[in-house]
Amino acid sequence: MADPAIGETLVARDELQRRIAELGEEISRDYAGRELVLVGVLKGAVLFLADLMRHLDVPCEIDFMAVSSYGSLTDSSGVVRILKDLDAPIKDRDVLIVEDIVDSGLTLHYLMRNLNAREPASLQACALLTKPDRLRTDITPPRYVGFEIANRFAIGYGLDHAQKYRNLDFVAALAE
Ligand code: IMP
Ligand code: MG
After folding, report:
1. Distance from the Cα of residue 46 to its chain's centroid
2. What's the fold here for domain 20-69+80-160?
């Protein structure tokens, strides 16, 4: 039975998988000859990270961070609290942050600053989804982006609403 909260499809399963393969090839080219540390941002990036890394042909390790932003449920305040830090140091490593979605960009901005302070050899970000209309003008967008979407609340493929819908294999808008 269809769940009425699952609205219009924003990115279909096939589109997701095709674009993720492309991203994997692009990242593999850019990091050829190097080793990557992929930093997945829990919990939303888990599905994306798992699919993306299957398309990487450079040696890679994975690590995870969990963060929560203070503030209202739908608007990030930019004040970020680390709930789970990396297991291993990243000094002199090539690091790629893997995020599900960049909205205002404040969470990613905080993560970039925090991880940069650990002196990695390089630091970039890859976001499956961005909302260009919402990105703060003073924040640099991620180096790699899967899809730019409209300003809708997205669910599925890792993205949740009240912890649900992460298991959908496509991205949908939350129905009003
Ligand atoms: P930002 O700090 O405003 O960029 O917000 C980033 C975080 O807010 C993401 O990592 C998500 O956890 C959450 N978020 C923002 N937009 C959405 C959405 O449309 N669906 C689900 N989570 C979202
Ligand atoms: Mg997130």
Report:
1. 9
2. Rossmann fold (3.40.50)
